[in-house]
Each structure stands twice: as C-alpha cells, then as structure tokens.
Design brief:
36% of the residues lie in helices and 20% in strands. It is of the alpha/beta class. It folds into 2 domains: 117 residues, Rossmann fold (3-Layer(aba) Sandwich), CATH 3.40.50; 98 residues, Orthogonal Bundle (Arc Repressor Mutant, subunit A), CATH 1.10.10.10. The strands form 3 sheets. A 5-stranded parallel β-sheet has the order 2-1-3-4-5, sandwiched between helices. Strands 6-7-8-9 form a 4-stranded antiparallel β-sheet, with no helix packed on it. Strands 10-12-11 form a 3-stranded antiparallel β-sheet. The longest helix is centred in the middle third of the chain and has 16 residues. The chain is globular.
Length: 245
C-alpha cells in the first residue's frame, strides 16, 4: 500500500524517483507493487488539496493521472509545477483520439490505455525518468505480485505457483493483477468496475461476476472452496492471503 511523505526530500536526491499517483486506491496498489523493484517512491492522492500539498512538500518527479476519474488534475499538476515541470502520464480506458489529443494539449507527456500489461507500467516511467532526470531505474523482467503469482515481462507470461502458465485475456490479466495486488482486501464490484472499465453506465451489471467465473476456471479455483479468489457475500471479491510453507 502506498504511503505518504512526512518531510521534504532533498531536491538533488538521485537515488530514487518519486512518482505521484492520482488514481483509485486499488489501482494505485497495483502500480506501486509493479514499480517497487525499480528504485521508485510512490504516494497517492484523490483530492486537489492533497495533490497540491504533495507536490509542494514531497516534490515528485513524475505523475500518473487517471483522467477518466481525475481529469481536472492534469491542470492541478501542470499548474503547480509550471516553473520546473515534470512528466505526466495519463491513464485512460477510452480509445477516442480527441480525448488523447486533449490530454496531450493540457500537459500529458504519455498515455497508457487500460487494460494494460505490466511491461507498460515499467517501461513508460523508465523512459520518462531517463529523459527528464538523466537517471536509469533498474529494469526487472520478473514481477512478483504475491507469493503465488509471477509475471515475466519478456515472455509475457503469468505463472501460478511457480509452475503453471496462465492463458489470460487482457481484461482477465488486469482483474487478476488488481485482486492480487490488494491481497486480503475486499474489492467491491463498483471498485473493480471503476478500476478496469471506468464507467458503470457503459457495461453490463454482471460483467465483474462473469469475468471472475472465467478467471476461476483458468486458475482451477473452486468457488465453493476457493484457494485464491473468495466471494465475500454482499460486498465483493478478495484474493486470499496464502498460508506460508
């Protein structure tokens, strides 16, 4: 889970790159887990006041903004750092060219579409930090999301329990990643819809349940005695904490 800064960092600190996440908490946890091996520090926010405070006190080097939910924050970030500036990456689930051009015109330097593969979350910040700061964060080809899931960015595979590779669609991958990155936490259908699809009005009401069923089949996970994805009645779904050993 991302944490907040309590003191101002040294402006010339080149040991790590500070990334501000203006995204929902479930998605922020996934991005933080993906980047944790690359010498990044991450903080997240969802209000303009917190965003301005973090920029002033924490002095981030880059921002990732979910423009489907926090579209005005492009101006908040770009306006707060108008003097020095730093790269802004926009995240969107929409495919409209007009929306992307508008984001670029308002200050975005790059755009990542959801659902995404984890290599994009690793590669885009790497390239931007190399160009903007002259630093080269470590690139790790394998990312562990928890004790049983590992993603190989080069081979583009997701491995379960260190042995079985899973054949997943992009949406199934993103759903799996978000659940795994929030191990032990109940994620409501509304949270999953907002994280992956963006707008509940544009999709069927049972879309989450349908994808969960399909994902369970590929995980060989029995919903009656689940090992991985647990249904929490009246609330949502949870990736179970795996026993040690």
């Amino acid at each position: 889970m991302t944490q907040r800064s309590t003191s101002s960092p040294a402006p010339d600190d080149l040991t790590s790159s500070r990334v501000l996440l203006v995204v929902g908490k479930a998605l922020a946890n996934l991005i933080a887990m993906t980047l944790r091996g690359g010498s990044y520090e991450l903080r997240d926010c969802s209000s303009e006041a917190d965003c301005r405070r973090l920029i002033a006190e924490w002095q981030p080097h880059m921002a990732l903004i979910d423009i489907d939910h926090y579209n005005p924050f492009i101006e908040v970030v770009s306006g707060a750092v108008a003097k020095d500036g730093f790269p802004i990456v926009a995240l969107t689930r929409k495919r409209e060219t007009a929306l992307k051009l508008d984001a670029f015109q308002r200050g975005a330097d790059d755009i990542i579409e959801l659902p995404f593969t984890l290599d994009e979350i690793v590669a885009r910040p790497f390239a931007l930090m190399r160009r903007a700061r002259g630093v080269v964060p470590p690139l790790h080809a394998r990312i562990k999301l928890n004790s049983v899931l590992e993603v190989d960015l080069v081979a583009q595979t997701v491995t379960l329990e260190g042995a079985r590779a899973l054949d997943l669609t992009p949406i199934q991958q993103t759903l799996l990643y978000i659940l795994a990155a929030n191990t032990g936490e109940v994620l409501t259908r509304e949270t999953l819809i907002a994280s992956i699809w963006g707008s509940a009005s544009q999709i069927e009401s049972n879309v989450v349940d349908r994808h969960i069923r399909e994902l369970r089949v590929k995980l060989a996970d029995d919903w009656r005695t689940p090992r991985y994805i647990e249904t929490v009645p009246g609330q949502g779904y949870r990736w179970r904490v795996q026993p040690h050993g």
